Structure to design on (1152 residues):
């Protein structure tokens, strides 16, 4: 199939996908009500699809000292720094749900300094942005800053690895010109 | 184990690794004569190890319009832009081998413009660097430039995806403070 | 009064404002249902309030070759480049209304290149961003680019002047730490 | 009229101006001996002329904890950072007069760090440059730095607002290609 | 001697200098009426003094396709990009003299694009700034641009070498904190 | 002669050189076994050749608180920041010899932060990079940092002057398109 609202590249219909790829798409469709475009766009390359979601599951679904809402904050902040529309909009939606806060995604995306983050979360975002934007400057002192806010070394890996995975994801989305599904723009906004 | 020449983080001995992770390490050891530190460092997180090498295999080992030497050039050029010592040194070695050119890695790492690359390869490197450094500016015109040098749209995905995977890899190596094995500095230099 | 959700600075209640300032606040309250925080925050300095809104009216309300929706697009794009939460969120709401498009503000804010803008509008945004970010490089050639899309010299002034006014506005909002009213986050989203 | 030494845009002769705009031009002509080109250039748009000078008067003429010479220093430093020829040259002249120092303008324009500014003035310039160049990073700590040099919160507003107004002014001057009057280059130099 | 208006470092009096260094200082004093501070500051290191002025003479005094006024333009433009007060002010004075234009130095220093330079001179300045700021990007195409304005390859060397010499000079002046002599601020201004 | 592996510019054969220039080339040939290309390339301009090597000798050969290996580290680190292939490769070779460390040059070139430098050497490199990249920000505090690591003010001059000389040298090498001799790539690698 070809649909510029999904990707610059062609992608298979659900019927054309390898069984495991289709199963994953159907699983998310069941849960969300629709198949997020990144699933369709990456299905163009089944091996890359499998590797990407294996990485995603390893970091985003597991138990961690970094809550799921916090991991989504990292995604939104670093994806905004990389100007990745797909990730800012789609993970913005997930962040609103996990944080139960209809405003948090827009605030983190525009300027995390104004988002009234607790000092712990702010230090987390700043470490993530350093990994995203100038990882060659990461040094022992950066880990000590995290430690001062109660983050362990394993937490630091989790924070940095989420930023690193979305460094990849942002570039793939920008390369393929992925567009966020219409639904993501509104999910979790819960207007008053 | 703990060895600052491998990683800031502890990592398992071969005996302590899950069987599939160990098998992969032994395979590369057999082929190269040593286990590259990235294998040890990522073994600290077996699920991430598996996902990373699945992604790596999907992009670096498959048949492609981009030769293996060219893929290594992309790795060296983008890793140098990200100041990732591990990837510049280790993939520099692989590039020297694949390209059968003892000088190419140093030249691409310092300034690809001076590396006497053919126009096709140069356009490939410039697309890869755009994905690495400002993927939000990727547009139709960038694909047309590649097309003018005979690269298909699938080739463009391959080029961009290698740059995107090493965007992740560079950040993980800088996060964990991975150090290149001593051997990599000399492999393929073949001094006269 | 003092309210960190409005400004870092104190500001007068409606009763304490000079009559003309109060009248302006009441006018916008009648129209919108609430007083946008920039009105309250700037009322701390009545002379600056008057000058700012005189400038605003001179550019944003008048007839122009640049439609009101287009002027709001310029505000959102340049305010996002300046990471001004107040202006991105509040003018994002106005842009959604004027453009009758619930998605346009988020798309322009994250990456205007992905917002499916017609070439004319895209050239308008790029001129505005050049004024916002590197006005010292503006030259005759920039006006000719606009001319090729049907913009007159007076249109160019309008585009550039909106970018220039929000260069001021973004800096004042960031200086005073202005926060967007809760309402702005949802206005014009019209979820399906 | 059309005169490339004034503006890229046409502008009215004194006779053609609205009475209040002409009165303002005549007033400055009487005081300075000539009409600064910014008055002529902005007279092309009388409403914007009125708003601009209302803002200017509100900030540059009023009593403040920031002396008039200091306000001109802020203008010269931030306008130099924005490479605005009109503002650097014209306000450089005014700064020389107010500061009674024939060298200060050139020194602040090239590199304020070498201008032998007292620590108080230096902190003022650094706050102004932060507002001019990266206002999204302004935080409580910036105000505390100013406080340590005796600046109140109202002083901080004054410093930041001058930087913000010239963010607008520099962009308008660069947009219209305004040129400084010949006189400004020499005023206040008082060669020995 | 120690004089913060000359240098952060001590420097010899004329009597204390080696004979050839003193001779050079006396020669410039005779010609200019004063000893420019760079002569005093560098005399702290006689061998470096000799090498610097040998380089200077080789580039700035010789016959060239680039006139002496043009060479001074290159110095002012690149020194302003490097924010070197000493070189902008002192070579600004020399530029005014050579170009017989009291305004040219200030205009080139603030924004060369607004200095009404003929296209040939503008291309010269842009090549010089590329050498000064991103010489690693210099390529054949840059020489062809110069060629289109009538500059030979030897002219290109002269332009680039002047930019390169002042890359050194700007850094030494900033390192030693050299201050321009009072006289330089006014020389060649010839106020009307 | 014309040889694109040496320079974009023609250069004299040894026979055609002025006697002193030839003597210098023969001297280095005797010592190294070959004439480094910078000697040939600069011989195109004998006066500049003489001045450059006089400067070089004044800084690189003399006794100093900065060891010869340390001076070469400064050259490699700053030349890498300037992406100068000639200087990174040729001085990398000299650094390996002087430091008796086959890995140090590659490590300093890619990311000095990962090169396990002692704190004293690291502060030296950071001062040198500040001179190389933003000398206008050099201030008293920078000298105090060096002082805390035991560097005198004269040492600071030596560090900064080496960075400044290679600011010139990197630009000349990039301008002339100088290529490192084949030998430099391997010298001092001493593979195990």
């Amino acid at each position: 199939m070809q649909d510029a609202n999904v990707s610059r590249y062609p992608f298979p219909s659900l019927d054309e996908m390898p069984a495991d790829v289709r199963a994953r798409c159907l699983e998310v469709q069941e849960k969300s009500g629709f198949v997020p475009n990144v699933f369709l766009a990456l299905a163009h390359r089944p091996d890359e699809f499998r590797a990407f979601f294996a990485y995603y599951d390893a970091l985003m679904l597991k138990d961690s000292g970094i809550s799921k809402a916090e991991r989504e904050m990292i995604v939104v902040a670093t994806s905004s720094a990389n100007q990745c529309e797909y990730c800012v909009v789609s993970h913005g939606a997930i962040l609103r749900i996990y944080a139960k806060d209809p405003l948090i995604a827009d605030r983190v995306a525009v300027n995390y300094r104004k988002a009234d983050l607790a000092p712990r979360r702010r230090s987390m975002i700043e470490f993530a942005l350093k990994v995203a934007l100038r990882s060659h400057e990461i040094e022992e002192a950066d880990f000590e800053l995290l430690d001062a806010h109660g983050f362990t070394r394993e937490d630091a890996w989790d924070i940095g690895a989420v930023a690193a995975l979305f460094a990849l994801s942002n570039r793939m989305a920008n390369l393929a010109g992925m567009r966020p599904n219409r639904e993501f723009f509104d999910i979790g906004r819960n207007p008053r």
Summary: DSSP finds nine helices and no strands in chain B. Chain B has a mean pLDDT of 97. Chain B touches chain E at residues 111, 113 (CB under 8 Å).
